[in-house]
Design a protein that fits this description.
Structural class: mainly alpha
Number of helices: 19
Order of helices and strands: HHEEHHHHHHHHHHHHHHHHH
Helix content: over 70%
Mean pLDDT: 88
Largest sheet: 2 strands, antiparallel
Low-confidence stretches: none
Number of strands: 2
Radius of gyration: 21 Å
Strand content: under 5%
Strand order of the largest sheet: 1-2
Shape: globular
Distance between the termini: 39 Å
Length: 479
């Protein structure tokens, strides 16, 4: 076994041991200490992956550019999520506190494995592990709504990834060479060259529908919306960013593998259709949203729709999709952290009971306004650049009708977010909240300012190493 093999195996072994110890020993101090140590280990592991970019380890994992990029986002958001998680669960009983952090460690390790996996079977195993670990986190508050959302999440996600794997197995049945049946991405490429185009189309649809449960795309978006709504805010931030990135990665890898075949136009049409329907559904529901976290959940659906359309358009749209995934991760995480703080200050997630946030908590209200600018792609948001690239790709490919429809739906989304955020920040509540109001230390909003600052920085400067990394990810795709 190589040095990298020992490092990778050690990382997963340490993750397992730390998660088990935290889960079994119901000590808040121990859980907090081990979780902090795990964050340091994860950051170190990510740094090691950067130093060995492109290396294949233990046959089942590869430190490829896309996986390492998403792993870096995960490391950054693990720091902020753990920090806000400590605040959120500080008053929980030791047993609940321990379960929360054990499941969080398991979730981070599972997502890390999914990012680096170089085969469909390996991806399937780690994606299923994310389902089980995040289920414990969704149920953290032990309410009837949390129980319903948890069971729905486990059931629908399990069906989804089963459908995804069924699509790949369907291809495997068409090949009689046993060397190709382990379903690594390289073997899937060989299968795609020999398979009937009809089988490839069926496989892609299965993969897209199946992993849409993770990415949050139409038609399997409802399960993630419910999970966002009831999960603790730090976990909602993870579900809507790093976990959605797992679904994106699984779909994107299959798209890249099949892009050299004759079904490329079919895949593009399916992605564009799914993306437009995601925008339509998100715009419709956001216009009538009365729950602050649910509003952000439908915003995630909208942004994943943008990513799907960008991939379907191709060309510079590929660059736009990867850039949008990165910037959306930072922006949406910051917004969920902030909405979690607004619950303490205003005592509610209900829109009609929210209001006067600027007077109650100026630091948080300012961060919320900044997050609104970022998520709606209004300059100086870096997401303006990714959406500008998308519009440029549409014009270059002469998809003028799609450009008009996308622009119109984004206007509805902008209006829905604008009216709700301004109401939260400046208007008086329409109804009196039932929960007790709390004060929040302004220093707790520093992480949001940092994440939004990264998004704004990208609007003005895209460092050459960052650009080259994205270009290396999309280099093999059709021009």
């Amino acid at each position: 076994m190589s040095e990298s093999g020992y490092i990778l195996a050690g990382f997963f072994l340490v993750s397992l041991l730390m998660g088990v110890v935290v889960g079994l020993v119901h000590s808040k101090l121990l859980a907090r200490s081990i979780t902090i140590l795990y964050v340091v280990i994860h950051i170190s592991f990510t740094g090691y992956c950067w130093l060995h970019l492109g290396e294949t380890v233990l046959d089942y994992f590869t430190f490829d550019p896309l996986g390492v990029l998403l792993l870096t986002i995960l490391s950054i958001l693990t720091i902020t999520t753990v920090y806000h998680g400590f605040i959120y669960v500080k008053d929980a009983k030791p047993r609940i506190y321990a379960i929360y952090h054990a499941a969080l460690i398991a979730l981070v390790a599972s997502m890390s494995g999914a990012y680096l996996a170089n085969g469909m079977t390996t991806v399937w195993i780690f994606v299923e592990a994310t389902t089980l670990s995040v289920a414990a986190l969704i149920y953290h508050d032990r309410t009837p709504l949390a129980l319903e959302a948890t069971w729905k999440y486990v059931f629908v996600c399990s069906i989804g990834i089963s459908l995804a794997y069924l699509g790949i197995l369907f291809l495997g049945f068409t090949v009689h060479d046993a060397r190709l049946l382990h379903l690594s991405f390289d073997s899937v490429t060989e299968i795609a060259k020999m398979a009937n185009p009809l089988y490839l189309k069926i496989a892609f649809v299965f993969v897209l529908v199946g992993y849409s449960t993770k990415m949050g795309l139409f038609p399997m978006h409802t399960v993630t919306v419910d999970a966002h709504t009831v999960a603790p805010p730090p976990i909602s931030a993870f579900i809507s960013t790093t976990l959605m990135n797992v679904g994106f990665l699984a779909i994107f890898r299959i798209y890249a593998l099949f892009s050299a075949t004759s079904i490329l136009p079919f895949m593009n049409h399916v992605l564009i259709l799914s993306g437009v329907l995601s925008l339509l559904v998100s715009a419709g529901y956001m216009l009538k949203a009365k729950h602050n976290k649910r509003m952000l959940a439908y915003s995630s659906l909208e942004n994943m729709g943008i990513v799907a359309i960008a991939i379907g358009i191709g060309g510079i749209g590929y660059y736009a999709a990867i850039l949008h995934i990165v910037l959306h991760s930072f922006t949406k995480a910051g917004l969920f952290y902030q909405i979690g703080q607004s619950y303490k200050v205003m005592g509610t997630y209900k829109l009609d009971e929210s209001g006067n946030y600027m007077a109650l908590y100026p630091a948080g209200a300012t961060a919320l306004l900044l997050g609104f600018l970022c998520i709606t792609a209004i300059p100086p948001s870096g997401m303006f650049i990714s959406e500008l690239y998308l519009m440029k790709a549409m014009i270059h490919s002469q998809n003028y009708l799609l450009l008009a429809v996308t622009g119109l739906l984004l206007c509805f989304v902008l209006y829905a977010l604008l009216t709700r955020v301004l109401h939260i920040v400046y208007s008086q509540p329409r109804e009196k909240p039932l929960h007790e109001l709390q004060k929040v230390n302004p220093w707790q909003s520093i992480s949001q300012y940092f994440l939004f600052g990264l998004v704004i920085f990208i609007c003005f400067v895209q460092p050459m190493p960052f650009r080259h990394l994205i270009e290396s990810i999309i280099n093999a795709l059709p021009k």
